[in-house]
Amino acid sequence: MKDNFDIAVFHGDGIGPEIMAPTLDILRDLASLGGYRLSFHDCAAGAAHYAKTGESLPAMSMQTARQSDAILLSAMGLPSVRYKDGTEISPQIELRKALNLFAGVRPVRIFPGQKTPLNMPEGREVDFVLIRESTEGLFHTQGRGEVSQNEARETLLITRETSELLFRFAFNLARERKAAGRGKGLVTCVDKANVFRAFAFFREIFDAQAANYPDLQNDHAYVDAMALWFVQRPWDFDVLVTENMFGDILSDLGAGLMGGLGVAPSADIGLHHAVFQPCHGSAPDIAGQGIANPLAMILSAAMMLEWLGLREGHARMAADGAQLRDATEAVIAQGDVLTGDLGGSARTLEAAGAVSAALKGA
């Protein structure tokens, strides 16, 4: 069994390096105790790098990412640094497209003790996963849209090949969740098939794939109705799958249900590669002050360990990922050591230290 793993590390912009450093320390401790090795390889990229060199994602960094077992990426981009066309620097999107990371995995979980703006009925629990297609959709022409004096156009692209991969991923995840007792085995296609032919096509492909999973349930929802139901009855969902732009919007709404982007992890997964990163931005207004929330970064690292462990058949690594997630959730639920965005006063290293202490006490 393989026990040495190469991890490409993108430290990011703004608060990115501040939340990555304690996350790597936690991973090193887990690997040391678990009997496996994580070799971290720093990769230059991002808005600050672009401002210095004119490159947002150097070829060497892309090569390192391609050769790694997993990619850990911190917050990227700075509002003040943009390409000549006015768009922000987004190496994470370039990685998704170059490595065909078609499945954007956005967990939404509200556990006992977690603060939420929802009025949660007693006995209800929210634990679902939004799967966002991450390589095409309305992001297809990113940076290549047509703009004239009087109009602008962007092209939405949905392909059968990518959609089939996406839906198989979603159904397989629902099957895994059901087997683990975390879901009811339900996959919901979120679209706008009543208005757009592209989404009718998307739904048709979904239905064809659903027929291959008779042990699972499936249904459909329009994206505007789903935004409403996120607020009214999020406990009814299991696995949701949708187009790129719809997923981009709904994932932030899901983060809001959990109390904010500071506790929202994510992954972008393909057939051969995967990137793990927090959903939030680089928050340059608080960079360098040591007050950034590291929990979404730590939860993303937990997702990486679970994914790698399952992929490589390394049970201890997968268990460490679950344990790291549980420890982070325990810190959030306890509420004594939270950063300012969650209503506390803890500093970055204090919040990360609380997770380490919870791990040691587990």
From TrEMBL:
Which part of the chain is the Isopropylmalate dehydrogenase-like domain?
6-355
Q: What class of enzyme is it?
A: oxidoreductase
Q: In the UniProt record, does the keyword NAD occur?
A: yes
- Molecular functions (GO terms): 3-isopropylmalate dehydrogenase activity
* Protein EC: 1.1.1.85
The UniProt keyword set, sorted, is: Manganese, Metal-binding, NAD, Oxidoreductase
Supply the Gene3D superfamilies for this chain. Isopropylmalate Dehydrogenase
Q: Which cofactor does it need?
A: Mn(2+); Mg(2+)
Query: Is NAD one of the keywords UniProt gives this record?
Result: yes
Designated name of the protein:
3-isopropylmalate dehydrogenase
Q: Which organism is it from?
A: Roseobacter fucihabitans
